Amino acid sequence: MREVQLRPLTLGDLATIYLWSQDEVFCRANGWSIGLSWQQLRTWWMALLQTSPDVMLRSGVAVQDQLVGFVELSSFDWQEKTAVFGIAIGARSLWGQGIGFQAGQLMLQHGFDHLQLKAIFAEVHAPNLRSLALMRKLGFEETGRLPLHEVYQGTLSDVVCFVLESSCWNSRI
Ligand SMILES: CC(C)(COP(=O)(O)OP(=O)(O)OC[C@H]1O[C@@H](n2cnc3c(N)ncnc32)[C@H](O)[C@@H]1OP(=O)(O)O)[C@@H](O)C(=O)NCCC(=O)NCCS
């Protein structure tokens, strides 16, 4: 099993992000526009790096010091102590090797243990079987479906809604 670490993202990661942005399969799976220019990507990346972690906490996923993806908590509700989970492994050749699972666990642990969140939500397009499997493996429970809610890979698709409560998380470890 490869050792996965979370680390802050930097402007120096832009070249890696640019490589991912040139992979159509990854872009379609992750909802990114295809064929963004270096300048467009740089503008987006700079804005993202300047976003307060109270609004969106996005960490790099690293394997042997190489950036391979990112994982995030966003849409924080600090009164209700909730957030929304998201993840992408940009290095597609590494899909299916347990990296998403390990990175997801690290971010969820941070959310529950350090940020003291009570619940973390996630939404997945129904045809995204790999992501559905990942959410279930991480302990998320399905709460419902939004029928034909968003376009995924060119087709109007259901969105599956998940929640992971802190009590469930704590009882797993
Ligand atoms: C979704 C994503 C983050 C998963 O990362 P990953 O590193 O490939 O995930 P893992 O290897 O930890 O696999 C998690 C589970 O997915 C399942 N899985 C793997 N390949 C699969 C496939 N081809 N079809 C269905 N399920 C699959 C397995 O059940 C696996 O659990 P297991 O280890 O018990 O077999 C990654 O594929 C990705 O970045 N996809 C594009 C972006 C995206 O879809 N993000 C999520 C948006 S909600």
From TrEMBL:
Residues annotated as domain N-acetyltransferase: 4-157
* Keywords assigned: Transferase
One GO molecular function term of this record is: acyltransferase activity, transferring groups other than amino-acyl groups
Indicate whether Zinc appears among the record's keywords.
no
Q: Does the keyword Ion transport apply?
A: no
The protein depicted here goes by the name: N-acetyltransferase
Species source reads Deinococcus cellulosilyticus (strain DSM 18568 / NBRC 106333 / KACC 11606 / 5516J-15)
Q: What is the lineage of its organism?
A: Bacteria, Thermotogati, Deinococcota, Deinococci, Deinococcales
